Amino acid sequence: MPDIPDVAGSAPSLRLFDTATAMVRPTAPGDTARMYVCGITPYDATHLGHAFTYLVFDVIQRVWRDAGHHVHYVQNVTDIDDPLLERAVALGEDWQEVARRETELFRSDMSALRVIPPDDYIGAVESIPSIVEIIQDLQRTGAVYAVGEDWYFDIEQSARFGQVSGCDTAEMLSLFAERGGDPDREGKRHPLDPLMWMAQRPDEPAWDTTLGHGRPGWHIECVAIALGTLGMGFDLQGGGRDLVFPHHEMGAAHAECLTHSWPYARHYVHAGMVGYDGHKMSKSRGNLVFVSALLRSGVDPDVLRVALLDNRYRHDWEWHDARLDLAHHRLSDWRVAATCQATSGAEEAIETMRQFLADDLDVPRAFSVLDSWAHQRGRADGEGKRDGAIMTAFCESVLGIDLRTHSDEPQASRR
Ligand code: 5CA
Ligand code: ZN
Q1: Is residue 336 part of a domain?
Q2: Domain that holds residue 184
Q3: Which one of 71, 119, 239, 322 has the largest count of C-beta atoms within 10 Å of its C-beta?
Q4: Nearest C-alpha to atom 6 of ligand 1 is from which residue?
């Protein structure tokens, strides 16, 4: 758990773009904000796309805390799924060993980047009993049917299907096929119906349950974990934009049928996709830059944090290595201003940054305020030290950036 110093003054309440209503709306958490962010599938962690997504939700959590809320943060780890099993076969390794190792690497990358860890970090495998229970509850509502020995969810039982993504049927069909769905499977009631439980395939792991000998589907896993920890109507469902459809749409549909209530989440918030070499950075494409490789080559984690967060959270953007140099220069200026220079105006700058952050999490504009603050001429009356300390506390608490260390040394090689 990183240090989160208290900062004087008050923060405005956070407004965020909600995918389901396609509007920037106020988040309105109670004392405790309840946030579920979809976790990794642990077979090739942690590339800069993952890191960007988790940093975005880390700043959301910090902004909520700055506004006086507690945060109950839940994340899953998809420690049983097709791509993990395929990777284990390709490596000739035990799938559980691959999952354990990659999960550990992800957690150490997150802690190096000063990401506040989830309060509940829960695997799919350990959730199998609750997943089975939920599928059985859904069976009783008539929303689950068998195709051979597999179990599917009937999307037509959900009156609000489509309201998270706003996609039309043609878009849904193409995204479903692209992202792990099986629109052409014979015997389904609707091509978009997702798998909830699959009977054991040859040479694959399986669990003995009342649904048969098999393993859970993907979407129901997150629903079981979110409902088991946060309950219905939690404040924010998060993830990268590639999870809008089918994953978050299906999750909302499952939960709605199960509880006969709505909404599943009050805000659906999605981070843009990070690209590299002209394509979305993805394990399947292999155009990856790993957090651990950059850190091993000597990149300061704060520099990486600045380089990633200097992008509007819901836009897609392209990584290139020069982003590290730019971030390094800016961070050095901020550090010099906070620790050496006679500075002033920290309180005003913080108030402005708080406004930009509360306005749909505009981190790049908050960073620009830091640039201006660092470049203004300070006063030499001894107040400068106090301003530096206030700014250091704010940056550590709300942006997760440490201004106390110096990084004037040239960055080591990065490849
Ligand atoms: N285990 C599922 C979620 S339940 C999963 O999508 N795992 S993942 O490892 O593929 O991705 C983990 C998170 O990183 C997801 O929120 C995903 O949307 C996000 N992500 C993956 N690639 C990128 C990228 N290139 N840019 C931004 N975010 C990304
Ligand atoms: Zn998920």
Answers
A1: no
A2: 28-274
A3: 239
A4: 40
Centre of ligand 1 to C-alpha 242, Å, is 7
- We report the CATH number of the domain holding residue 34 as 3.40.50.620
The pLDDT tens digits of the residues spanning 285-331 come to 889 999 999 999 999 999 999 999 999 999 999 999 999 999 999 99
Question: What sign results for the dihedral spanned by CA atoms 316, 318, 319, 324?
Answer: negative
Considering the domain boundaries, does residue 135 fall inside one? yes
Domain count across the chain = 1
Q: What share of the chain is helix, strand, coil (3-state, %, to 5)?
A: 45, 15, 40
Residue 359, domain member (yes or no): no
Question: Candidates 19, 36, 38: which one to mutate for ligand 1, based on the most atoms within 8 Å of Cβ?
Answer: 38
Given a contact cutoff of 8 angstroms between Cβ atoms, the answer to whether 196 and 216 are in contact is yes
Look at ligand 1, atom 29, and give the residue with the nearest C-alpha: 49
Instruction: Give pTM, 2 decimals.
Output: 0.96
Nearest residue by C-alpha to atom 22 in ligand 1 = 49
Q: Are 53 and 271 in contact (CB under 8 A)?
A: yes
